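Researcher: Can you fold this with carboxymethyl coenzyme *A in place?
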Amino acid sequence: MPDTLTITDNRTGQQYEVPIHDGTIRAMDLRAIKAGPDDFGLMTYDPALLNTAACRSRITYIDGEKGVLLYRGYPIEELAEQSDYLETAYLILFGELPTTAQLQQWKHEITLHTMLHENFKKFMDGFQYDAHPMGIVVSTVGAMSTFYNDAKQIFDPAIRRRQVHRLIAKVPSIAAYAYRHSIGRPYVYPDNDLSFTGNFLNMLFKMTELKYQPNPVLERALDVLFILHADHEQNCSTSTMRNVGSSHADPYSGLAAAAAALYGPLHGGANEMVLRMLHEVGSVQNVPAFIKKVKAGEGRLMGFGHRVYKSYDPRAKIIKRMADMVFTVTGKNPLLQIALELERIALEDEYFVSRKLYPNVDFYSGLIYQAMGFPTEMFPVLFGIARTSGWIAQWEEMLLDPDQKIARPRQIYVGHGVREYMPIANRKEAH
Ligand code: CMC
């Protein structure tokens, strides 16, 4: 018996048989279902695409019910334990873990591309002294397309590979420049002796010392945080990257749009919001009153809940362990007690339990970032550095997928029918 779905249209009494592949039916197969000859055909209504697969992908697998996250088949826990960010980025981008020679070559290519054109400094200088670094990153990544005109040749694999190197290497440099600009310090050039993450810390925090030496515990912790954020299948920013890329825009324009999507408080801005929330709560004693407010619909418990994870977010577990490691170096973040109490109460409370709301990746990451010396404005920027590998991998997959076309959703029009133009003298205020 083939996998099919039989649909009876009760408007006409007609039956249709639609094939099922991979647990899905093709939405376009519904178009044949018509109430009459002039009918456009049936569509699905799916705001926010809650139940629509928009692509076939081999990159990241999530089982939200079981709390599973795999990159190219490898569990996130094993990668966080044994891999580093650049190796994980290679895996995400090219599908397999690299050999020693491949990894060396990859790291060499990335290191070669970490420097920014000096003109970047000029226009970054033009931002206000208090500009949000994420705003600077969004604009500057977009501006990269004007520096690398070859990037428009998106169907040339060698040219595409060059943009991959540039993006993975230069986004951290842009992020560091944005941070240095926001605190009025001179920009720091990359140090190629250091690791990917060590160099990033150097570009952020180097002062007058001749050579910056990253603390190995913090360097590793940040690297693991980058691994945890590297990809997360079809989330808001990744869908944006795919959508923009589907018009065959260059990858810098696509990545700027993806970063803009990440900027929002419901996505990459959430860990910034978690810290603001913890400050607002102020002390452990105020936690019950805060939870009461959330339950009354006055605001959300930031860092809780996830569109896909409905048992737990595996990244949150790893991060909670990492927090302990980081706090041995930096000292405990005083907000930790408030976070632990919020989590304790929420995990026992019927409101959160019945809605399957658990801590997500952002609940503890902000506390770690803050303890490491990052201002809250840098949190979404750090997320964006890590997610760059995922965005590019998903963009390339989309580009080479023969099923894909320019993204163009449908709508249900609920506005006025045709009406005559009203001369201004005859109009009344509508609202
Ligand atoms: N605090 C309180 N109530 C919540 C929360 C929360 N954080 N999240 C969801 N709910 C409630 C919501 O009010 C709704 O209740 P009801 O059914 O009574 O109306 C129910 O749970 C379902 O919520 P939803 O908005 O339909 O769920 P969603 O899948 O659309 O939202 C979410 C997912 C992540 C946007 C949401 O949980 C949220 O806003 N969380 C806080 C922001 C946050 O931490 N975002 C980071 C997400 S993880 C990082 C990333 O991947 O970007």
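Model: Folded with carboxymethyl coenzyme *A in place. Residues 82 and 224 are 10 Å apart (CA to CA).
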